[in-house]
Known about the structure:
With about 270 residues, this protein is mainly β. It contains four helices and 13 strands. Residues about 1-5 and about 5-25 have low confidence and may be disordered.
Amino acid sequence: MPPAGGMIAGEGSPAGGEGQPDRAPAGHDLSLVSVNLHAGYDAQGRAFDVDDAWHRLDPDILLAQETWRVHGGRDPLAEWAAERGARILAADVWRGCNLRTMGIAPDPAPGDWGLAVVTALPVLSYEVTDLGRAPGDRVVRRAQIVRVALPGGGALRVVNTHLTHRFTSPVQLMRLVLRLARDPVPTVIAGDLNMPAPFTALAARYSPAVTGRTYPADRPFVQLDHILTGRGVVSRDGAVLPAIGSDHLPVRARLSLAGRRPAGGQ
């Protein structure tokens, strides 16, 4: 498998901006949605309306796992980002694969499977970090680490990841938390963590923002999709959202920085 990479497309402020404050002024919060797209197919391998899904979700920050870009084909997620004047940061996890081999859908066309963050907020910095390959897994798991400027000032670090399904996802989560601890700034970890809610307690100093079953979408019995908030981040309105067609349900939370009251907050 070729090494995975990351790319930035669409509009937005350039990366950089060191020295920005990490506290937002009063009256500002943002909505964050995380969803495993299952490459745009349901559990039976039937394509769903990805364009409609984006317009129904419409958060300030969208974190997507199992994105799919067919070589030479259209990219609905990038098109939606462009319509919103937003930026898309894409990280390939598996290049040159196909959905038939992956057991997702019968389509043999080659493409790239990965992660994406979409936001119209200014991006101050961006990197992709490796979390290792679990025994029996086909790919090296990765996390996108994105620092965004909040409305009116301040910054938040948002981490998008899809951990292994091979029973060692807690090891990868702890590896990620240790990596993030080198720079103790207000942080949110979200994505398909492939572990039930009790195991997320291994992420020391992070708290769940959403509680509810997310998988499988048609009859959920376990929460695999999570939003975890670190110190300095306040969450409210955490919820599991209605199905969009994927085999996972989306999760959403509204976030602000500690010590500041969000708009409409009590």
